[in-house]
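Title: Prediction job returns without error message
Component: structure pipeline
Severity: low
Priority: P3
Assignee: unassigned

Description:
Job completed but the reporter wants confirmation the result is attached to the right record. Sequence as submitted:
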Amino acid sequence: MIEFIEKEFREQIKTQKLWLITLVFIFFAVLSPILTKNLQAIMKTTLGMELPPPLPVDSYLQFFKSVYQMGLLVFILFFMGCVAVEKEKGTAAMILSKPVSRLEFILSKYISISAAAIFALSVGGILCYGYTETLFEEAGSFWLFLKAMACYTVFFLGSSAVIVLFSTLAKNQLYAGAASAVVLIVMSFTSQVDMGKYFFTSFLGLATTYLQGGSGEIVIPIISSAVIIGVCLVAAWRIFEYQEI
């Protein structure tokens, strides 16, 4: 399976997906501190509104907000065909003719796209923190920022599992992308109610809470997120087992 995972990474580099998703996150990492730093002046000039002086944490909140609202969409668009396209083109059949099981196929897809998300998030996060420190001449708590990064890492691990599931289930990548987006949006809305703590989307709210110096329940979200990821991957594997390739 390791060889197949390496193949997936080479494919991401060849198709530029890894670099493009990273560039998107870098864009947010650079833009967020600039917008945050200048928002007070912009609002005063254009609307005559007086806003309190911006803080480094505002820059981080803007970065993570952009990652969720736009970065996730780009991530889905890039990887919604991770299994569906392989089935459409017939390359899945060629791969499975080699000593690669269907379970290894699914796990390799999940590991490779999860790694791409974590890499892009890490690069963007480090750049955002460093650039914020440069613009604001202070950076706030690095520990709180790391906790927020960890929360978004779990979120993307869960999102990757959902994408793999629907890419396996759907007949083409457009259906897979649409279904993944709808499910993730619906799950994110549940974070406003008590049952939301059982979904990995609850880590979006936890990230904000941590950045603002608060605390929150972490054990239940971690356990439930691991269960959801496992269920998605097992479901994708079993569905893939019964599909004619």
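Comment from assignee: result matches the submitted record. The mean pLDDT is 89.
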